[in-house]
Amino acid sequence: MTQSQLWKRIWKHKVFYLFLLPGIIWFILFSYIPLFGIQVAFRDYTFSGGITGSPWAGLKYFKQFFDYYQSNAIIRNTIMISLLKLLIGFSMPILLAVLLNEVHNTRFKKVVQTLSYLPYFVSWIVVVTLLQRLLTPYGGPVNGLLELFGIGPIQFLYNKTWFYQIIISSDIWKNIGWNSIIYMAAIAGIDQQLYEAAKMDGAGRFRQIWHITLPGIRNVAVILFILSCGSIMNAGYEQLLLLNGPATASIGSVLDVHVITAGLREGRLSYAAAVGLFQSLIGLILILIVNQIARKKSDVSLF
Predict the structure, then answer these.
(1) How confident is the model over 121-150, as pLDDT tens digits?
(2) What DSSP string runs through 137-199?
(3) CA–CA separation, 254 vs 260, rounded Å?
């Protein structure tokens, strides 16, 4: 396609490109222009010198992070929590979307959809406060119910035994409804004649789900999985900041909190930028690797 043909095609579909314009502007302002600040990770940044006026430091702050005695534990905790969220939480929105698709009562379906979406718009501060009220061993309803069965009060929060369960379950509860929207849209795009043909062949609901619904959303699931792999080094700042305590620090200290603490609380901006860049590079590498594997195995890829 020549350049003139490309411009003619863009002009022909100009209305669609206008819809893309706000998103493109957003990415330029908040994703591409800030890339200029990456050099802070390689400079001894000072407020007086600014980004371009601060002296170069090379890989000083990367070395400083890897020499930090807790760096291995922080990286390990971040990967562990992110993998658990990915392996357990990724399939939950798919399950919810498939189950909602099987509901024929429109009113009930809308109620469930609304209730599952709402937690996404609730801040983690509110979620953690709710968890504290529910799970406290001092009169909390969950421990009150356990006592009826002869089980003593349990300290769920800030307890290493229950830490991962609380982190994963609260993350799923908060995001499952919102993340299921794109799968429901994909299911809605499946040709209904396929279901009619399956019924005529004697296929029940489970066989229809297995042979029509799941293959129909496979491509969408693969794309979202590839994108999710880019967040392996991001375990979730707000959630871990609020749910992690001294008793769980050995398994709950993650890169997200470490970066914000070093950058904002301690004022070590160059160090925080170096650690943040390390997170991003690992995420980019993982996306490229998983994208290549997906292309070979399923012929579905981002690029």
Answers:
(1) 999 999 999 999 999 998 899 999 998 888
(2) TTT-HHHHHHHHTTPPP---TT-TTTHHHHHHHHHHHHHHHHHTHHHHHHHHTS-HHHHHHHH
(3) 11
